[in-house]
Amino acid sequence: MYKKQKIILIAPAYDEEVKISEVVRRAPRDIIDKVLVVDDGSTDNTAEAARSRGAEVLSLGAVKGVGFAIREGYKIAAQEGFNIAVVIAGNNKDAPEEITRLLDPICDDGFDFVMGSRYLEGGGFGGEMPFYRKIATRLHPFLVSLFIGKRITESTNGYRAVRTDVLSDPRLNLDQPWLDHYQLEVYLLMRLLKLGFRCTEAPVTKIYPPKKIGNTKMRPVVDWWKILSPIFYIGLGLRR
Length: 240
Description:
Elements: E1 7-13, H1 17-26, E2 34-39, H2 46-52, E3 56-59, H3 66-79, E4 84-87, H4 99-109, E5 113-117, E6 124-127, H5 131-148, E7 160-163, H6 183-194, E8 199-203, E9 205-208, H7 222-235
Parallel strand pairs: 1-2, 1-4, 2-3, 5-8, 6-9
Antiparallel strand pairs: 4-7, 5-7
Helix pairs in contact: 1-2, 5-7, 6-7
């Protein structure tokens, strides 16, 4: 428990047996009440590696998509009475030690949602970040800012925190099938901003591992559209 708030850390993971154990190991247990790894149909030993470090594992049994995995994590967070749900990358790009940067704006200042940003002062990135990601992680928030009318510096960073009671708002519909993949994270951010929830950003670091051990599972073009499509669907009011 942290500042009287019950905290769950949700890590969606697909074939991350090498990296997920480090994510779980680094999670500060004096702050986090539960580490939940949602195994998205891995074919390796992701689940066993996570459990060996003390995480609880929800195995989906087949590849459902990162959005689906996060949604299942959110459902457990609500069912088990957690006050704040933090989502973190299962591939060890994020720093669990920085979790209080996401929690404090909620606990101390009453925010509903906090997005981690590598581009705020105090944040940063390192390692072998692909060139196209450097472009995309600047262009995407620029487009979101245009449609929402509020300047943000990050919109695709998976390291974020939300008050779980916000997720039960009937104006949000996370169960839509089109949100099963990368769309869900962008959808949630944009809908919360459009609906007037108190959202902010916090500086975090993101470290990309060497390309030879894999630094992304995102597929060119197909997955790029999945990340871009919510901007137009939500920004133009085509979907809710």
